[in-house]
User: What shape does this take?
Amino acid sequence: MSSEMKNQPFVGYEYKEIRVPAEKASMYIDCYENFGWEIDSNLSMTRDLHMITIRLKRNRKRMNRMELTRLQRNFEACMHELDMLEYSKHQTAIIWSITVGILGTAFMAGSVFAVTHEPPIIWLCVFLAIPAFAGWIAPVFIYKKVRQKKEDKVQPLIEETYSKIYELCEKGHDLL
Assistant: This one.
């Protein structure tokens, strides 16, 4: 043991490992620092596809540790809420698009049955093929339209959640 280490007091740490989306890693690191966490320099961050594993440590004897933990849990809940709001923008649009695509496919099946019927019913085949092709083309436009409407609806909620996150981080920072 070096003489430098003997002169420094012992510090016990608690450790935390989090997996976060790569595009939000900086935000997570910045926010966790406001709750007393620091990046564990002994271990590196690992990345796989779209996720990053961040390893953090915090002094066990930190003042206000209980309050910092409470604020941190609120922050984590807000981040989860943010993820769900972001996900909901796509989910609703995908559901509508898939539903219309399936209806288009059902019309196409009817069209195929009409043309393969003995004798073929050409007028029914054409009549059913028109909504079938529309049902295959429309999902692209429906997805964009529904996603935009949902985005307009949830954007204020997303902004409100970000405000809550920043408020929690500010409170945590004040306790450090």
